[in-house]
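for the writeup, i need someone to sanity check this before i put it in the appendix. the sequnce is what the collaborator sent (i think, or maybe the updated version? ugh). structure was predicted straight from it, no edits. if anything looks off just tell me and ill rerun, i have time this weekend
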Amino acid sequence: MTVRNVGIGEWVVSADPSVSIKTFALGSCVAVIIYDTKLRIGGLIHVALPDSTIDAARAASQPGYFADRGLPIMIEEMKKLGAERSHIWVKLVGGASMLDPDNLFDIGKRNILAVKRILWRSSLGPLAEDTGGEISRTVSLNVGDGSTLVSSGARQWQI
């Protein structure tokens, strides 16, 4: 199994069944995992902020950092590989309230809402999600079978 790591503001799309796509330490960030069950094409993006209008330079150089810029690009890459809406599921992980005890910024919740808004525009919605709370999560997608493993500390579970 080849592991392709996804950093903050990055995404990976793959049709290689020997690949696992993985991202680490999702706090308020959100991972959006999209998988075509027929063609076995998987994509994972690690979104840090909901809206690119706060930093045009970063949005241009690192569009995946923002839900409104990166997620549509990843969806288009999957379409170019042949992914079709009728065979796709979506899973969301992350969006926790981290280091913000008074929910002053609520970045996690804002990220989740932004991602869902973009998905809905593409007529997609999450099949499953492990979001919110106050824990950091790591998630991986096995492109060969679509299995999705979430971990936090010593615990791990499938979604």
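The longest strand covers residues 19-26. The domain at 2-158 is CATH 3.30.1330.200 (60s Ribosomal Protein L30; Chain: A;).
thx in advance!!
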